[in-house]
Design a protein that fits this description.
Its main location: cytoplasm. This protein has 125 residues and is an alpha+beta fold. It has one domain: 2-Layer Sandwich (Beta Polymerase, domain 2), CATH 3.30.460. Helix 1 crosses helix 2.
Length: 125
């Protein structure tokens, strides 16, 4: 099984929104073969708690405009690792220290990467 077209569309919206707020290392994994509960994990990081919150706010706003509503949000108060669950996609916005420590990419490295639009900067800054 692969991620649905709708999940990929939402992934692109989330990735662009994160990039607009200068998130770093934006990646998306198709986890649909590994997990029955979601199709895609989007992972992005930011260098400060304040910027993590700004990225989260923008992702939520853009996904809301796209008609998506979060099923669950976790970690907003601390601003170190915020999880936004939209059913088809789950967005992880992490402080750079948490990203390095928890290394989600290592856990999901066997899953295929979803190609992000060329206007999304997925590189390190």
């Amino acid at each position: 099984m692969t991620a649905t077209d709708h999940a990929v569309e939402l992934t692109h919206v989330a990735a662009r929104a994160a990039g607009d707020k200068l998130a770093h290392q934006i990646v998306a994994f198709d986890v649909s073969d590994q997990l029955a509960i979601t199709d895609v994990f989007v992972i992005a990081s930011a260098p400060s708690d304040r910027q993590v919150k700004a990225v989260v706010d923008e992702v939520q706003a853009k996904l809301r405009e796209a008609g998506a509503k979060p099923l669950r949000r976790e970690g907003e108060r601390q601003g170190r690792w915020v999880l936004l669950d939209y059913g088809e996609i789950v967005v992880h916005v992490q402080h750079e220290e948490e990203r390095e420590f928890y290394a989600l990419e290592r856990l999901w490295r066997d899953c295929p990467l979803i190609e992000l639009p060329v206007d999304v900067d997925g590189g390190a800054r």
